[in-house]
Amino acid sequence: MLVAQSSLFNVFSRRERLSRSVFPHALASGKRFSSPHLTVVVPHDTSGYAVVVPKKVARLSVTRHLLKRRVLAALHTLPRPTALILFPKASAITLSYTELTEELASLLSKIKH
User: Fold this and answer.
1) Which of 1, 28, 73, 101 has the fewest CB atoms in 10 Å of its CB?
2) Cβ(47)–Cβ(81) under 8 Å?
């Protein structure tokens, strides 16, 4: 039971997530930052978080969800802006959790809060 409860902390609450209705506008109007393994879009006029792992990045859903959980867990440990959309690249699958956290931290440090 303890494992199930701890995994809940890696997910943003419904209020903290970026809504589907706002997503296209946030994606089009946001500023993009890239690193070798991640792309971040920072929308200006909204708040919320999203991590998008398409089938092009990881064909198996198990791999997509693993990558999404790792990115969300790393994101929870770092200071972040009010709105953020993260796109892991296919090469992010090979990173360990600590490498992913370090790269995400360096990418977020480029963003002016």
Assistant:
1) 1
2) no
